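[Automated response] Your request has been received and processed.

Submitted sequence:
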Amino acid sequence: MNDSRATTILESGLRERNLDVIAGAYGYFIRKGKAGSENALIQALEECGAKEMATDFLNCQNDKLREAARVWAKEHGYNISVLRSDDSNPLWGRTK
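Generated structure:
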């Protein structure tokens, strides 16, 4: 993301635990890979999550998010699986 206005809004949403912002931009936060943001991401999954979000958490190469995705999927009756990592999957701490 190259727009400083957008990143300011997203970072503010993370600090304030705005779950709608976090859920809507979870891919940005995964790619950013900010230490300590996992709990906010997990809370967003629990409150606003969807199968696609859980699948991305499972495949993002962050152990805490991976486990949260498994728990969420089981609680919601979904079967999600590990996919091959490619450019379309947000990976923890990898902006490209």
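Summary generated for your ticket: The CA atoms of residues 38 and 65 lie 7 Å apart. The mean pLDDT is 92.
If you did not submit this request, please reply to this message.
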